[in-house]
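Input chain follows. Return structure tokens only.
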Amino acid sequence: MIVLIGAVAAVSLMGALFLLTASIAVGRFVQRPPVTVGSGVPVTILKPLHGEDAQLYENLRSFCEQRYAAYQIVFGVRDSDDRAIPVVERLIGEFPSRDLSLVVDPTIVGNNFKVSNLENMMALAKNDVFVIADSDMHVAPDYLATVTAPLADPAVGLVTCLYRGRAVDGFWSQLGAMFVNHAFLPGAVIGELMRPGNACFGATMALRRDTYDAIGGFASLRDQLADDYALGVAVRRVGKRIVLSNHLVDTVIAEPGLGALLHHELRWARTVRLLAPFGFAASVLTHAIALALVTTLLDGLSAWTLGLLAFVLVCRLATVRLIDRTLGFGPTDLWLVPLRDLLSFGVFVASFLGNQVAWRNRTFRISADGRLVTDGDSRA
């Protein structure tokens, strides 16, 4: 028991120091001067849609207001009654000078409906540079120029972006945004420092047509839950580099309740656990508060473990303040930080208890290589 308590305490202490280091790394990452000089070639933005997400109109409009000479946007849905269609039609009416088009095509190939949607949209893609971005992303007017600039280098096969969470009003949305800003983002920045060019995020995936053709198009992604991760693997496999831009985009987070929040985070955790098991196991360091609390309970609330818990808590609160300042957000309610971290620890533990996820009202198992596997016609 003494050895166990000592080991958990050591990991908790290392985790607190890791989080402080990560918060400083986020600041340096964001302040890095971006590459802004590119070829200025025409770009096609692909926006696969499903339903009317929170602030969908505002998110899509931000892509229509880019300071870029020539670009088109192709929106795509599967169903003719999809609630995203009126939003797209409104934008087409508001921006008659923009090259905006909508594809409605129910064709499904594979288990990943988003990838099927993208394949259906490709027939209208006119240009030789593609930018794929999830529907819940909101971007600044210089976004397109910034993320496409590195593609002027032929050795670069793909450009991707990290994101920060902006919560729609609501307690659960706030907790969801805290996970993105204070756990995912610093962890991803440290991951980039350790293995540059190893990550790819659905917030932005920019690539040239020649790279798209070299990897065989979207066909290899049809059954992948983490299609962004699989796209990055495919690009590296053909010998091209991935550039992580320091241009942060915003993801709008709207969680209606605890169940929805847990579904989303558990799906993400189980996917990462299967695709990057060693890195995911190492992320136990990020659960410093939970580990310090376990240490305290195991040792019967002794003075030294209470001191450890206090030290870890102060370090964690400091990291939250540093990251809020770096991202330009108002201060997070500090009383929420322990609650958020304990919830994250619960998701971390639960991720080891199965391979099943709920996505788009369907239930899947995730195979060892990240593929979506259906069990009959099971519903989530």
